[in-house]
Task: structure prediction
Amino acid sequence: MADAAAIRDEAARLLAFFEARGAVRVETPVLQPAETLLDLYGEDIRARAYVTADPVVGEAMLRPDFTVPVVQMHMAHGAEPARYTYAGKVFRKQEEATHRAPEYLQVGYEVFDRADPAAADAEVFALIAEVLAPLGLRAATGDIGLLIAAISGLTTTARRKAALLRHLWRPRRFRTLLDRFSGRAPAPAGRADLLARADPMACDAPLIGLRSAAEIAERIEALREDAAAPPIPAHEVRLLTDLMALRETVDNIAEHLQDLAVDMPAIAPAVARFTARAEALAAHGVDITRLDFEGSYGRTSLEYYDGFVFGFYAETRPDLPPVATGGRYDALTRVLGQGGEIPAVGAVIRPELALQVAEGRA
Result:
């Protein structure tokens, strides 16, 4: 295990690497206002955030990552295009993986550039691959944008699509909902009896909990709408399942995606973006004949990613989390942009993990 001084030195080396490539170094406060940010990180990070109260700021948290505060900073004051780098500690509770540190250094590189998103994706990935090349890591890639497009194109109600999109990052819950909406699994026990009543609210039970009677009635009406909706067509479920199950190198996956787009036209624009990105990666010197693509990759990562996603792993150390992760988060800039938006992509490296892998190779 590398000591703290060595980790700081490695972080400084990575920071200098990105600055030499044109990135501007930025800082963000360790203590962040929690009200807006907690809703953006997703269920996993929200549960692991250190939240406290401040007499002036109100509810606040120790920063769980840099991307959200960097986006806030850029959308408020940044020029276009912009490239930033940063280094500092992030804080996450480790209730399950108790062997992992609750605070660690993170070094990142973020690009805000609307000129050519595919080229920006390739730029970020290629720089991370370059600086980590001596470690011999395996890179994995995915595309959340393909999955979002496929779900949005399903022949079903808007409520069902919204539920599937909300739970895309929780694979077990997503599968349960997909099976139910497609008629392959029954509705939860008791729901049919509830909906069969002329007035489900007509009972002697006291009103307990945070929901009002009007909110409960609205929920019951939504359940009735869902029960009356026809199942998602079986061929659409099969195509979505095939998309999530794809595992191939990037150069070979394009043909599979184009075949799927014939029967699933909703993903055609996302497939075009995938193809443009593959060409841009090759132009940046990335060997796409050896770069893995996984259809479901990124479904357990931060929920603000909505396009290209990737990670770098030490195959000799399966006990370690990814040394580096990244992806595209265009929607996040819309949420934080107060009416503005800009295509954005970035990545982070954990320098202590890079040192552990380097020590093992030595």
